[in-house]
Amino acid sequence: MPSSKMKILSAFRRTTNEAPDDPVEPESQREQQPAEAPPEQLMAVPLTRLERNPFQPRSTADEEKLEELITAILQEGLIQPIAVCATSESTYRIVAGHRRVAAFQRLYERTKGTDKQRLYEAIPAIVKAPLDDLRMATTSFIENDKREKLNLVDEAAALTKIRDILSGRLCREATAKEVADAVGKKDEQRIGRLFRFHEAPDVVKEGVLGQRLVAKNDNRDGALLAVVKTSTKGQKTIDLIAALEFSRLHKYFAVHTPDKANEKTKRIIDRAREEGWSVRRIQGYIKAIISGETNRRSPPTVFSDEQGRLTVYLSRLSAASADVRTQLRLRLQALLAQLERLPEPNGPPDPATPSSSSGAVNVD
Fold first, then answer.
1. 24-33, 218-227, 278-287: lowest mean pLDDT where?
2. Considering only CA atoms, which of 304, 300, 293 is closest in space to residue 320?
């Protein structure tokens, strides 16, 4: 018969329409649970008695989203308690909820000297039974992945850590499939790629994030989670396959021009991000560099036609080869033919009205 405290927790979750902090775990882990697990407790834990989870997969919190969370707490209170487990008689390790703790820490500082400060001295928490390292790592990963997708750097680091713990138990290196089973994932091929990406140099990881990596020992002002302003808005992100290609490029530069490997790799990554290169274009460009095809100085691009945007560089037309000019002529003819097939507008065009077309034509 479940205890009354467990009934309260269950009712709390139903009324808040929130998923529990401990997500559904794979069958293999549920079978390892003791038949009579101690009941969970709901209590207010002082912020000063909280410890960071060493297996927390998220290295940073987004500044803007943290402020949105703070606004929600001010308006509605904390809907979902954090999850912790006791590490001693006086301290608790966070299992899930680092961003909620970060929000409470900010509110505590902002209300200093007022009557409201005491509202943020402690945070509601579900105290769970102690978890071993593997359970702590997998539970934290699943919970974070469920709430908001981790960036590639954090995801790769978390899964690699889980692989290392699992390998220690198996007395051999755990496979991508075994790690996938541990966290309830099906795409073992992607997890294998993430293991390789974890070994990529920092310049590639920073290119994927669009910002500098946060130092592992960064714990400013006693914060349990670093908060940063993201700088990726309006930029095309680099996906996993492209990141592995850039890692391969860096390895090539490290052999041939080791002193400039980071600089050269960063320059190409920045260009690919700014111009929104497709994976195919990235692969072709890197293949050309590694094969030596770019040793001869390539003529400047006369026009590009990617992702519905046609860009023509008029200043480069005079130096274009006959083949390039023919390609551009054919593309422009196709564009004019497409315009001819469009129905006539009902009235004269309004210069103040933007085009509804998703494509664009730039002429420089």
1. 24-33
2. 300
**Contact of 269 with 207, CB cutoff 8 Å:** yes
* HSE-up (13 A, CA, CB side) for residue 49: 19
Longest dimension (CA), the chain: 85
Angle between helices 152-170 and 202-209 (to 10 degrees): 130
pLDDT digits (tens, 9 = 90+) for 256-270: 999 999 999 999 999
Query: Is residue 268 within a helix (H) or strand (E), and if so which, with residue range?
Result: helix 261-275
pLDDT in tens, 90-142: 899 999 889 999 999 999 999 999 999 999 999 999 998 888 999 999 998 98
Q: Tell me if 353 is assigned to some domain.
A: no
Stated pTM of the model: 0.66
User: Which residues constitute the domain of residue 312?
Assistant: 303-332
- pLDDT given at position 318: 82
Cβ neighbour number for residue 35 with a 10 Å cutoff: 4
Distance CA 227, CA 64 (A): 9
Between CA 100 and CA 82 the distance in angstroms is 7
In a domain, 74, yes or no: yes
Domain count, the chain: 2
Domain-located, residue 52: yes
- Sign of torsion over alpha carbons 250, 252, 257, 258: positive
